[in-house]
Structures are given as C-alpha cells and as structure tokens.
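step 4 of 6: structure.
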Amino acid sequence: MMNDTFDLRLAESHIEVHKFRTGAIFAATVLALMLQAFVPVYFQKFAVLDLPLLVTIYFGLSRRNPSTGLLLGMVIGILQDSLSGPTVPLGLYGIAKTIVGYLASSIGARLDTEHPAARFALTIFFFVLHQGSITLTRRLLLAEPEAWFTMHLGIAASVNAAVAVFLFMMLDRLRRN
Amino acid sequence: MAGIPSRHRSVVLLAGVIVLQVVLLAVQIKRDSQGRLLRVWTVGAVSPFQRAGARGIGNIRGTWSHYFALQNTSRENEELKRENDALKLQVNQLHSKAAESDRLAALLNFRQSQREVPMVAARVIGTSADTASQTIYLDHGERDGIRRNMGVITPDGVVGKVIESYRDTAQVLLLTDKDSGVGAMLADSRIQSPVGGTGEPLLAMKYIPTDDTVNVGEHVVTSGMDRIFPRDLPVGTVTEIKTGRPFQQVRVRPAANLARLEEVIVLLTLRPLETKKEPVAKAADAEEKQVSGPAAAAEKP
C-alpha cells in the first residue's frame, strides 16, 4: 500500500494521495533550483518566477502529508537561501517555504486541488503568504524595512499562478498510476 | 514525538522546524557568518551544471533561431531553401562569434591598457536564486586567485565586488543590490559621494549637498576611496536629480549593462589601486567634452 496510490477519506470527502516515480521529487527540486539560478542570466524576466516555490506547492498539494510537506519546503527553502546573495541569510526562504509546504499539504488533504482554477487561486494565495512570511521575517528578525506589497509582487503572483497551472499539469505526468 | 497524539505531530514538527531556522538566523546575525559550509556545498553542486549550460547556450541559441528560420520553408524550393538556411545558420554563427570576439577584444584592450592592475576575465554562469538580492556567479574562483572584496568591472564600467569565492566559482554582488556601494565622484566637478544600489536598475548618489551643482548627463566615475576600484573608472551617468535637504537625490544609470552581463573582468588585488587616466577614462572624458552644456547633457538618454 505504501507504494501505490491510495484513497483517504476525510470529512466525507474523497481525496487521493499521490505517489510519484522514484527520484521524481528530487529531480524536480534540483531542476527548479538550477533553472532559477541559471536562466535569468540570459532571460532576465524569468526571475519573476519562483520555481522552487511552485515545486513546494505542487508536491505539498499532491502528497498531502503535512510532515513531508513542511520538511520538503524547508530543504528547498534552505537550498534556495544558500544559492542566494548575502542579503538572504540561511533560513529566510527556509521558514517561508516550510510554512507553505505545511499549509499546502494540509489544504491538499481537505480539498480537491486538481482543477486548474483551484490550482491558480491556491498558487496566488501561497505566493502572497510566502512573500508575507519573508517580509515578516525581514522586518522582525533582520530589522530590514521591506514593503508588504508592491505592484510588482501582484504581477509576480499572477504570473506564477498562470505558470503553475501548466507546470502542475507537466508534473502530474510524474505520478504513478 | 512518541507521547504526542498523531494528529498534533505535524504541528509540533512545524513549530520545531521554524524555531530551528529562527535560531539559525539568529546565529548568523550574531556571528556575522553566512553559513559558508552549506553555501560551498550547494554552489559546488550546482556550478558544474551552470558552467556546462553557459558553454552550450550559444549553440542552443543558434539551433533555436535556425529552427524558426526553417518553419516556413516552402516545399517547391526545398533544396534551395535548405542550402539557403544552411548559409543563414553560418551567417548567424559568424555574427554570434563576431559579437563575442568584439566583447573579448574590448576586454583584451582594456586589460592591455591597465597592465599595472592584475586582472582575470571571467564568464557569467549563473545568477541569484531569489529576486531580492542581485548577484551573479562567475566561472572562475579561488584557484584563479579570486578572493572576497575584489572589484569586478567590464570595459564599460563598474559591475560590483566579489562577496564569496569558492574553488572554481565566485559570487559577485552587483552594484544595483541595495547592500552594494562604490566610492565615486562626479567627473566634472570632482565632488565625491558614494554611489549605492537601490534594488532597482538605477543607482543612488547619496550625499551631494543641495548647494552643489549637478547636471543631468554628467558622468560619475570611481574615486578610489573605497580601496577596491582604481580612480576614474566609469560608474554611470546622472539621469535624475531631485532637490532635498540636506542632500540632493541623484539617480545614476550604471555605465555597465548589469542586466545582460556575459563576460566580466575581476581585479585581482586587495591592495588600494591607483591607476592613470587610460583609455576607459579617456573615452568617458571625450564623451563629456562632446556634451558641453547642461542643455545638451539633458538630451542624453
């Protein structure tokens, strides 16, 4: 049962917990981090995307195990921190993605998140939550003045959500039948 | 975890993981450390792929443009078109190589004109994994003599400084990052003021008193006071001035195109640099002379 797709009944809803092909989560995570650190050199507007965040959200929503989700979020976040500049201490993205990973897994266990519209809305929600966590951490722990919201963030949230719809469809193919 | 009800375990784990990371943050701030070990591992794991990607990107670009060139090939002229496309590809490749040669020639000329300053040319292979910090990765590191706090430039102007050096890779903080800064002065009046990043494409010249005259279009060059860059390297051009008390708000457009960096030069010295006015600075001067008055200067982009 551990290696197969199985069903979970929660609050009278019928929710599937998805398993992925061996190494799929690892490969998707590494690829997302590498693309995030490489593509903007040649295509600067690519930096508006947060691929590690989208991967965290996707596997959180699909795996639907809060413990796994938050640990995956933490690992992705800290790796992203370590590939970033000195203005990003280790833990800044780690905390934000831990929270996102936990909530995505918890929400995924209660709602059907397979519909593109649901994925679009949830990605916007998680993007805003992620940025809110980073801003809060910067303000409270690092004493850095950081704007809560800018127009750029609003646009970035929409772009990430639109990309997430297609990216999630591609990642669906990594699931085990 | 054994005594905790299973439905609360994930909440306890969440709290534990967040507290752990808050402590990690606090330790880094307290000790002013950057978690170097983990960064070395991560960068070491990622940089070979970035290096390979940077090498292959030129070929991918050529193939990609060739693919589009072939999309509308007419059947009747297939043979002729094929030959034509092959020639187009060759021309594209030659153009690409010519552009690269121009850039490398500019680097070489600059290097020859600044013989007294040890330097090494490096290729940009990666960028920061987040949008908050503006950094790039180079394909040269400690093995090539690159150390922290070394200056990074292009023949066009100042780029930033090395903030971390790994075995085969170095991380550079761009001038546009809000933590970045360079000792600078106005080329005409020689008024000195540091220029810093704002996190946006334009830089800020921070401490120009309201009484001093600054003109839009005026060139900003390095002052040498930061002991990283030699004097008179181009930093940028004044594009916007707002009055303020006690200092004017002066915005500067970087001389180097920081949005599209492919090759850079690292100044391989940590000692204070003092160089003569050589071609780069002279070029800036010649340009200044052409733009003699404030009105003419204002017309410059």
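step 5 of 6: annotate
 - Chain B touches chain A through 52 residues (CB under 8 Å).
 - The two ends of chain B are 64 Å apart (CA to CA).
step 6 of 6: archive
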